[in-house]
C-alpha cells in the first residue's frame, strides 16, 4: 500500500521556544549597606552644629541612619528651619563626608557578583542623589542606575520601574520598600536594625554583612534555575 503525501496550506509547526528570561536586577541601599557613612555624617553634623550654633548630638544621630535627613534634623532644629538647614547640610556634605566614608566590607564584591551573573546592580537610597553619586564615584563602585531621595515604601516605585527582583538593605524601611515592589528582601545586619528586627519586619533573607552576598546569590540563582 502506497502512502499518500499530505499537503496543507498551513505553515509547518515551529518548535516551541522558551521566552527570554528577564535580566536579573538587584537593588542596593547605600548608607550602612554599601557604604559606612557614619564617619562622614558624624563630621558633617559637627560642622553643621558649629556653623549654625545649634547643638547636634552627632554620636546619637549616626546610630539611627536610614530615614531622610529631615527626620533627624527635626530633633535639633525648629520645624520651620529644617528645609534651609537641610540645604546647608547638603551643600557642606561633599567637602566633609565623601572622603571620610569607606565602603562596607564586601560591597565591591557584591556588585561584582551581580555583574558576573549577567545582571544589573542599581542603588536606591534616601540620600540626596547627587551626594549618593559622589560616594559611589569616590569608591569606584559603578552602579547601573542611582535613584536617590526615596525612603521606605517610596523605594518600591523605583524598584518596580527598574525591574528589580531583589533589594538589599540594612533597615526595616528597606524591607518595606522591597515588599512593596514584590522583590525579595535581602537584609544585612550592618546598620541600626539587628537581625531579629529585620526578620520581624518581614525580610526574606538576613545576612551578617555583604561578604556573605556572593555565595547567597549563587545559591539563589541555582535554586531559581
Structure report:
The protein is 43% helix and 11% strand. It contains ten helices and six strands. A six-stranded parallel beta sheet has the order 3-2-1-4-5-6, sandwiched between helices.
Largest sheet: 6 strands, parallel
Q: Could you say which structural class the secondary elements and strand pairing correspond to?
A: alpha/beta
| Helix and strand pattern | EHHHHHEHEHEHEHEH
Q: Supply Rg.
A: 23 Å
Number of helices: 10
Number of strands: 6
Q: List unreliable stretches of 5+ residues.
A: 1-8
Order of strands in the sheet with most strands: 3-2-1-4-5-6
Straight-line distance between termini? 50 Å
Shape: elongated
DSSP helix fraction? 40-55%
Instruction: Give the strand content.
Output: 5-15%
Topology:
Blueprint: E1 25-28, H1 38-52, H2 58-61, H3 69-73, H4 82-97, H5 107-116, E2 120-124, H6 129-139, E3 145-147, H7 155-162, E4 166-169, H8 172-180, E5 184-188, H9 195-200, E6 205-207, H10 213-224
Parallel strand pairs: 1-2, 1-4, 2-3, 4-5, 5-6
Helix pairs in contact: 1-4, 5-10, 7-8
Structure in a nutshell:
This protein is of the alpha/beta class and 225 residues long. The protein is built from ten helices and six strands, in the order E-H-H-H-H-H-E-H-E-H-E-H-E-H-E-H. Strands 3-2-1-4-5-6 form a six-stranded parallel beta sheet, sandwiched between helices.
What descriptive keywords fit this protein?
225 residues; alpha/beta; 6-stranded parallel β-sheet; 10 helices; 6 strands; 43% helix; elongated; disordered N terminus
Amino acid at each position: 500500500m502506497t502512502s499518500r503525501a499530505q499537503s496543507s496550506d498551513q505553515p509547518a509547526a515551529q518548535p516551541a521556544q522558551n521566552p527570554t528570561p528577564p535580566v536579573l536586577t538587584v537593588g542596593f541601599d547605600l548608607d550602612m549597606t554599601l557604604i559606612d557613612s557614619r564617619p562622614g555624617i558624624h563630621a558633617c553634623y559637627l560642622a553643621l552644629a558649629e556653623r549654625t550654633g545649634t547643638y547636634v548630638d552627632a554620636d546619637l544621630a549616626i546610630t539611627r541612619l536610614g530615614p531622610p535627613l529631615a527626620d533627624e534634623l527635626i530633633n535639633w532644629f525648629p520645624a520651620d528651619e529644617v528645609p534651609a538647614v537641610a540645604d546647608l547640610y547638603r551643600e557642606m556634605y561633599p567637602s566633609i563626608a565623601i572622603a571620610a566614608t569607606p565602603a562596607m566590607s564586601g560591597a565591591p564584591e557584591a556588585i561584582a557578583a551581580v555583574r558576573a551573573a549577567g545582571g544589573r546592580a542599581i542603588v536606591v537610597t534616601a540620600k540626596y542623589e547627587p551626594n549618593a553619586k559622589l560616594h559611589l564615584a569616590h569608591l569606584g563602585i559603578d552602579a547601573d542606575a542611582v535613584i536617590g531621595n526615596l525612603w521606605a515604601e517610596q523605594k518600591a516605585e523605583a524598584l518596580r520601574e527598574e525591574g528589580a527582583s531583589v533589594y538589599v538593605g540594612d533597615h526595616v524601611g528597606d524591607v518595606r520598600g522591597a515588599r512593596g515592589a514584590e522583590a525579595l528582601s535581602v537584609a544585612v545586619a550592618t546598620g541600626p536594625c539587628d537581625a531579629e528586627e529585620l526578620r520581624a519586619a518581614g525580610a526574606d533573607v538576613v545576612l551578617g554583612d555583604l561578604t556573605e552576598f556572593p555565595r547567597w546569590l549563587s545559591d539563589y540563582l541555582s535554586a531559581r534555575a
